[in-house]
Write a structure and sequence with these properties.
Elements (H helix, E strand, L loop, with lengths): L5 H25 L8 H51 L5
Helix pairs in contact: 1-2
């Protein structure tokens, strides 16, 4: 028997949403362009851009995970309701 705590899935979805927002905010800061008049500044700018892209990717993945967890919680809730309805229709014999 599979026991799923939909509240736990919803909580985890909320955590993913907040982490996604935090990563996105940090990525925007990292992607800010630096002046590139010196080679070291240009290198820092390249790294900032790479970190910004990685952060955007991670934020997207967290958002996708949030969406999947929310859908899974809704699916399990619907399945439980359907199962309860089917069981309620069964004849009771003692």
């Amino acid at each position: 028997m599979l026991s799923v705590e939909t509240a736990g899935l919803q909580t985890l979805a909320g955590v993913c949403a907040s982490k996604s927002a935090a990563v996105a905010a940090n990525s925007a800061t990292s992607a800010a362009s630096a002046t590139t008049f010196q080679p070291s500044a240009a290198a820092v700018s390249v790294v900032h851009t790479a970190v910004g892209l990685a952060g955007s990717t991670m934020s997207g993945r967290l958002t996708a995970t949030e969406t999947h967890l929310t859908a899974a919680a809704a699916g399990f809730t619907a399945q439980d309701a359907d199962s309860a309805a089917v069981l309620a229709e069964l004849p009771v014999t003692v």
